[in-house]
Design brief:
The protein has helices at 31-44, 68-74, 84-101, 115-126, 140-151, 169-179, 200-208, 228-231, 248-254, 256-276, 303-314, 341-357; strands spanning 2-7, 13-17, 57-58, 132-137, 155-160, 183-187, 189-190, 195-196, 212-216, 235-237, 292-296, 316-317, 319-320, 329-333. It has 368 residues and is α/β, with parallel strands linked by helices. The radius of gyration is 29 Å and the shape is globular. The chain has 2 domains: 57-61 and 256-357, Aspartate Aminotransferase, domain 1 (Alpha-Beta Complex), CATH 3.90.1150.10; 68-252, 3-Layer(aba) Sandwich (Aspartate Aminotransferase, domain 2), CATH 3.40.640. The protein has 12 helices and 14 strands. Helix 3 (84-101) packs across helix 9 (248-254), helix 6 (169-179) runs parallel beside helix 7 and helix 11 packs across helix 12.
């Protein structure tokens, strides 16, 4: 079928093919009818209100609270990634990160991604296919770095300990000397357990064997010393949303030593109060992360109900354990803006109330 469209200047009639089933012009809906249908479709579309997230006190293992100065900075005009100002800010961040990591000559690189993205960048760039990759495994993130090594085609060898235990200097050195790997990896501050691993002997033994050392410093950076140069770490990876909890300019303003001391004091206040309540810490004294505390859940207490009550009634977020520690520990982070005596006391008071509501009564025990 054809339909007449128009006459040209020579009075020739112009025809176009008409598809089968297409209605004649008189059968087509009018403009007003068409607009009505479109308006109906628009009106039936879901309407979303502006975002209004609840205010939480983030006392979990991460993310941590954001400083008001960071919110203010996020409201500033955006510039392109090739703008000279962007390069200036990027350069400033790289320089400011050096004292946070504890390095004078090291190269700092900022990636758009999580802490695990930094871990994967370290493994994929320094672990070659077929290379022996030695991992000190005592928690979830040690397992993750092991899997990354396997995907790279490395020969992964592991020194394993139960979650929450750390490696002594002598046994760490013996493992490296025995395996003679090309790359060694350990987690400085294990988020899944709250355990802090010393790296000095690991790095020294690795260098004697001609190996590089990768250290996961995700939960320690910004809240306690990492000391890349002093320890001998070759590649350290971390993130912004835990102990750092902000761009490093704010840390430079406070002073990195002052920031470490603030987190250390808050950790000490917290632990002393927890033990006074008759609760136990999962990790041995002297091997604990200042920014992340693992508290053993008392017998007969439902950790999900305790955490749920804190969140619903006081907007306090703490997390439980997982893997071998599921149902056995609370993971409580004290980092960034919440690392103050007043905030710690607020948390302790509410935790005590929530535990009491679950029937817990403090049972004092000898403190080691």
């Amino acid at each position: 079928m054809f339909k007449q469209m128009a006459r040209n200047a020579d009075h020739q009639v112009i025809y176009l093919a008409q598809a089968a089933g297409e209605p004649e012009a008189s059968d087509k809906p009018s403009k007003d009818e068409t607009m009505g249908v479109k308006q109906q479709e628009i009106s039936s579309s879901p309407i979303f209100s502006p975002l209004q997230p609840p205010r939480r006190y983030l006392f979990g293992p991460g993310p941590s609270m954001v400083h008001p100065r960071v919110y203010e900075a996020l409201s500033k005009p955006i510039v392109g990634h090739l703008d000279p100002y962007f390069f200036q800010v990027m350069g400033d961040i790289q320089q400011l990160l050096k004292p946070v990591f504890g390095t004078k000559d090291g190269v700092t690189t900022v990636l758009s991604g999580t802490g695990s993205a930094g871990m994967e960048a370290a493994v994929s760039n320094f672990v070659e296919p077929g290379a022996k990759f030695a991992v000190f495994a005592n928690g979830y993130f040690c397992d993750r770095i092991s899997e990354m090594g396997k995907r790279q085609g490395a020969q992964v060898v592991r020194f394993e300990k139960p979650w929450g235990k750390t490696f002594a200097d002598e046994e760490a050195a013996e493992f490296i000397h025995l395996e003679k790997p090309q790359v060694v990896a350990y987690v400085h501050a294990e988020t899944s357990t709250g355990a802090l691993q010393s790296g000095n002997t690991i790095c020294a033994a690795a260098h004697e064997a001609g190996a590089l050392v990768i250290a996961d410093c995700v939960t320690s950076l910004g809240g306690m010393p990492v000391n890349v140069d002093e320890t001998g770490i070759d590649i350290a990876c971390s993130c912004t949303q835990k102990g750092l909890s902000c761009p490093p300019g704010l840390i430079a303003e406070e002073g990195i030593a002052n920031r470490w001391e603030r987190h250390r004091q808050c950790h000490q206040i917290f632990v002393e109060a927890i033990e006074a309540m008759g609760l136990r810490m999962q990790v041995t004294k002297g091997q604990r992360i200042w920014t992340l505390n693992t508290v053993c859940i008392p017998d007969g207490v439902d950790d999900a109900k305790v955490r749920g009550r804190l969140l619903e009634e006081k907007s306090i977020e703490i997390l439980g354990g997982f893997g071998p520690l599921a149902g056995k520990v609370f993971r409580i982070g004290i980092m960034g803006p919440l690392a103050t005596e007043d905030h710690v006391q607020f948390l302790l008071d509410e935790l005590k109330k929530s535990l009491s509501a679950e029937g817990y009564r403090p049972q004092p025990f000898p403190i080691a």
